[in-house]
Task: inverse folding
């Protein structure tokens, strides 16, 4: 079965690279401000820290470009026949993922469904979730469960 891949337009490519480009420009401008204004060392250290941090985030986002294209094609294949809101849940958690969702919905001709997804999956920056993590220790190949009991005195 031959599946058609989605062809991205230049507008879509710009939409995917918008955040990394903005962050890259901010990092360059904050670094250049040091040399233009000739600030003291106490003010230069935070400027350098912020510029390196934003530059690293921009590089990370640019390196995820191919993964975003794969995600766009995957979402397009899943929702080509019928609209499945649950398939967009993971992508609605961050601004970059929301750009992926907007591109897929625009190619499907279902831009009005973005409002539904936006209401159903709001961005949760500080989401506190009880994790189901279980800590296990191994000694000589045997599993020793980790017990968190504060009753021992």
Result:
């Amino acid at each position: 079965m031959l599946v058609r891949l989605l062809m991205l337009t230049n507008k879509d490519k710009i939409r995917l690279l918008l955040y990394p480009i903005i962050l890259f420009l901010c990092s360059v401008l904050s670094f250049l401000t040091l040399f233009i204004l000739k600030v003291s060392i106490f003010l230069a250290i935070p400027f350098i820290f912020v510029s390196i941090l934003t530059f690293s985030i921009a590089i990370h986002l640019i390196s995820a470009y191919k993964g975003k294209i794969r995600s766009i094609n995957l979402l397009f294949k899943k929702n080509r026949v019928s609209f499945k809101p649950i398939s967009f849940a993971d992508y609605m958690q961050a601004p970059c993922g929301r750009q992926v969702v907007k591109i897929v919905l625009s190619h499907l001709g279902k831009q009005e469904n973005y409002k539904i997804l936006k209401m159903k999956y709001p961005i949760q920056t500080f989401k506190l979730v009880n994790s189901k993590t279980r800590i296990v220790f191994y000694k000589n190949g045997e599993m020793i469960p980790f017990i968190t009991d504060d009753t021992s005195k």
Summary: Helices lie at 10-37, 41-63, 65-79, 95-108, 113-120. The longest helix spans residues 10-37. The mean pLDDT is 81.
